[in-house]
Automatic annotation (TrEMBL):
Protein keywords: Hydrolase, Metal-binding, Protease
Entries under InterPro entries matching the protein: Cyt/Met_Dipeptidase, Peptidase_M20, Peptidase_M20_dimer
Name recorded for this polypeptide: M20/M25/M40 family metallo-hydrolase
Chain ranges of the Peptidase M20 dimerisation domain: 198-356
Length: 457
């Protein structure tokens, strides 16, 4: 089976593929605003019809929110579950767009041709790279590439409320060997990447209380404990001088990077001086024995996000406050368990509390990190296919943030996700004048054809 004929078909089909993407981009599928519910349903129906025309057994399936599009194609070999989302972010502020966000067009820019419109990149353009790769494959071979299930969500931009229940209710139907996710980007403008790890999060609020009322520091200053002093002491002792977090056991479940991945990261063209300079900083403040990329992608952190207590308004008030509070968040990696970290934090705070003080700790958010098991040969096959298409090495990368769907695929379906995307930092997703480079769309289709070829060989 030659891949070249499929790639030629993709090249020849680019104008029609772009027109089909425009049809999808014209549908105003803004998931967060109930006024666009009918548009979301329309986008789901449009996609179900496209998949059906390609030979998928496909339908838009009702959920308590917007529909889920599911399509199955028989075939043999590795069962792949492709995920994308057809909903988009609101377009406000509308006056900052230089064209109607739902009237897509190709524009010439100094950096090449771009497809302009809401969803051009996130995620309609990206998900269509996969569907169009399937179309070219079908045109050449008469069948779809292997055993495929497609799952297209309509609520990703509004918190995915229906996704976990849908995955649970349809776990048998959605069983597969690997998930393909197309909702990420290139590392820089040219280098392909496979995102291999996303950090998790544990967000907490802590309130330290002392006296049963606010006091006057002239009357009580000295004998009365000050909760702000207690809180700031607790917080400041959570990091040592080398930027490490001091909670006992905090690093127990943190895995070291595989050597080959570390070597890839060292080769990446990441300029940390410029990264910091862009926000008025110069010196990396995290763990001193780690590179800035590791700090952001593969190492856990703790940050105080807010702190309050006493009087901080205009003028001055010599108050000795009854309480002080802070909000903090950990970014978690590897196998770190948010419950274990929270217990360690509670134990640490309890050990630091002086007489007459209490601490109240509440958890706001907890989600584990998502780390893919790279021992599946699919990852290396995909990496080679991407390098072939882009003519540059493809790297495994991390992400400081999280993509909740990837954690759900892991926890509910037990599946790893191959996260491949062709977006660029300049795409302005979620902002006015969103674009997708024609090159991303074109080479994205070709990349999927190569990956599907490699995984089915
Ligand atoms: Zn997205």
């Amino acid at each position: 089976m030659s891949i070249e004929t499929v790639l030629d078909k993709i090249d020849a089909n680019l104008p029609e593929a772009t027109e089909r993407l425009f049809d999808l981009l014209r549908i105003k599928s803004i998931s967060t605003d109930p006024a666009y519910a009918a548009d979301c349903a329309k986008a789901a129906d449009w996609l179900a019809a496209e998949l059906s025309a390609l030979g998928f057994d496909a339908a838009a399936r009702a959920t308590p929110g917007h529909p889920m599009v599911v399509g199955h194609a028989g075939g043999s070999g590795r069962h792949l579950l492709f995920y994308g989302h057809y909903d988009v972010q609101p377009v406000d502020p509308l006056d900052l767009w230089h064209r109607d966000p739902f009237d897509p067009a190709i524009e010439d820019t100094p950096k090449g041709k771009v497809i302009r419109g809401r969803g051009a990149s996130d995620d309609k353009g990206q998900l269509m790279t996969f569907i169009e790769a399937c179309r070219a494959w079908k045109a050449v071979h008469g069948t779809l590439p292997g055993r495929l299930t497609v799952l297209l969500e309509g609520e990703e931009e509004s918190g995915s409320p229906s996704l976990a229940p849908f995955l649970k209710d349809h776990a048998d139907e959605l069983a597969a060997d690997l998930v393909l996710v197309c909702d990420t980007g290139l590392f820089d403008d040219r280098s392909p990447a496979i995102e291999m790890m996303l950090r998790g999060i544990l967000a907490l609020e802590i309130v330290i209380r002392g006296a049963d009322r606010d006091l006057h520091s002239g009357l009580y200053g000295g004998p009365a404990i000050n909760p702000i002093r207690v809180l700031t002491r607790i917080l400041s002792d959570l990091h040592d001088d080398d930027g490490r977090i001091t909670l006992p056991g905090f690093y127990d479940d943190v895995d070291e990077l595989p050597d080959d991945v570390r070597a890839q990261w060292q080769r990446l063209n990441f300029n940390h001086e410029r990264f910091l300079e862009a926000v008025g900083l110069s010196v990396p403040a995290g763990e001193q024995d780690r590179t800035p990329l590791e700090m952001v992608w593969s190492r856990p952190t703790l940050d105080v996000n807010g702190i309050a207590g006493g009087y901080a308004g205009a003028g001055f008030k010599t108050v000795l406050p009854a309480e002080a509070r802070a909000k903090l968040s950990f970014r978690l990696v590897s196998r770190q368990d948010s419950r274990k970290i929270e217990e360690a934090f509670r134990a640490y705070v309890a050990s630091q509390l002086p007489a007459d003080c209490t601490a109240e700790i509440t958890t706001a958010v907890a989600a584990p990190a998502a780390v893919n098991d790279l021992s599946d040969p699919a990852f290396e096959l995909a990496r080679a296919a991407l390098a072939e298409e882009w003519q540059l090495p493809a790297s495994y990368t991390g992400s400081g943030g999280s993509i909740p769907v990837v954690s759900l695929f892991k926890s509910i379906l037990g599946l790893d996700s191959l996260m491949v995307g062709f977006g660029r930092n300049s795409d302005q997703i979620h902002s006015p004048n969103e674009k997708y480079d024609v090159e991303s769309f074109h080479k994205g289709m070709r990349s999927w054809a190569r990956i599907l070829h490699a995984l089915n060989a």
